[in-house]
Every structure is written in C-alpha cells, then in structure tokens.
Design a protein that fits this description.
alpha+beta; Alpha-D-Glucose-1,6-Bisphosphate, Chain A, domain 4; six-stranded antiparallel beta sheet
Length: 173
C-alpha cells in the first residue's frame, strides 16, 4: 500500500514514470484496434535477452580467441620451422650458450628483443628482417642453435647467415 501511495505521489509531481498501459488489457477497457505496438516492457525483456545472448556469444568468442592471443604474444617454434632454419651445433651446455646468444643478440641490434626464456627463443629485427633464434639442448654437453630470418614474410638466408656467423663467432670467444 505504501508503495502505491509513493508511486502516485511521484507521478502527480511529475517525477515518477507514467504507469505502464498495455493494449488489450481488459482492466483498462481498451481493445486493440490493430496490431499492438511493442510495449516498453516487452522491448526491455528483448533487449536484456539480446544482451545476455551477445554476452554468451562474446564469451565463447573470447574463450576461443584467448589461445590465439597468447600465441601471438609468445614465440612459436615448430618442427617445420626447425627444418627450414640454419643450425649450428655447439659443444657446450645449453645455459652458457643461451647466455651468450642473449648477449650477442642484444649487441647486434637496437631493436626490442622479444625473449621467451621457457623455450630459449629470441625474436627481433636485424637489417629490416625479423630474426628468430632458438637454442635447445641437443645431447649431453651439446647444444643446437637455430636461426631464421624473414623479410616481408619471405625467408632471407643472407641475414640468417650473417646472424649465425656472429653468434658462432661470439660463442668461440
């Protein structure tokens, strides 16, 4: 009862919303003359369900894109990439080789180094080419270094060879 009185007082003062009236409501005595216009209430429900549906679809889309976003940030090393990269075998443990490669790559370019410590991979730009270097333990006391360079998405063997020669030279010192 109190709620009705408050609602009526707000309506009289012009502050509150007008009462909702629906076409064909027998309580109000009006019958629809033609197709009933969409009520604000029905539109509100439709809007809410559309938002819920959009939220669910958006959540599904984000959940399926999340691995792509993570993969885009990380450096991906595949067997195919390894088959196409230049390789050098170094007779040393992987940790000192990795430290030397990090030092050499940071001295080789002023570009930002994208370093993936977990996979021992570095991606950067050298001579306008994107260079990817990967270091892995190959055997006991033997480490393999992979280098690939691409310019405009096409393999650039000259830059890859230049980077590999610098890395091997720095490893021998």
């Amino acid at each position: 009862m109190m709620k009705r009185q408050l609602s009526a007082a707000l309506q009289e003062s012009g502050i509150g919303p007008a009462p909702a009236r629906f076409h064909g409501d027998p309580a109000h005595g009006d019958l629809p003359a033609g197709p009933a216009p969409a009520s604000p209430r029905r539109g509100g429900i439709f809007s809410a369900s559309a938002l819920v549906l959009a939220g669910l679809l958006g959540g599904l889309a984000l959940s399926s894109c999340a691995p792509l976003a993570v993969a885009a940030v990380g450096i991906v090393i595949t067997d195919e990439w390894k088959d196409n990269a230049l390789t050098a075998d170094v007779q040393a443990d992987v940790e000192p080789v990795w430290a030397s490669v990090l030092r050499s790559m940071s001295n080789m370019t002023d570009a930002l180094l994208h370093v993936d410590e977990d996979h021992r991979a570095i991606q950067t730009r050298v001579d306008n080419s994107v260079v990817l270097v990967h270091v892995e333990q190959w055997a006991v006391h033997e480490t393999r270094v992979y280098v690939e360079a691409k310019k405009y998405m096409v393999t650039n063997p000259e830059v890859a060879q230049l980077v590999m020669e610098r890395l091997v030279r720095d490893l021998e010192q």
